Amino acid sequence: MKSFACGDIIPGCGATFGAADDDGILVQTRRHAVEAHGAAEPGTDSDPRVRPHIHDV
User: Comparing C-alpha atoms, which of 14, 12, 3 is closest to residue 53?
Assistant: First the structure.
């Protein structure tokens, strides 16, 4: 199981995500970037910032 806390890269954001693998986390964070942080569309732009902060649970 993997986890990611958005607050690790966006101070003040309390969203957290869990999934079986990194790809599952990335699917969720791409959607979250659009819905919560105003990204133009779900893309892979944030992946390089997110990946180093995905942890094993």
Answer: 3
Distance CA 1, CA 35 (A): 24
Residue pair 41/34 in contact by the 8 Å Cβ criterion: yes
Alpha helices (H) along 1-57: 22-37, 47-50
Q: What are the pLDDT digits (tens) for 24-48?
A: 999 999 999 999 999 888 778 889 9
Handedness of CA 13, 19, 22, 24 (dihedral sign): negative
End-to-end CA distance of the chain: 5
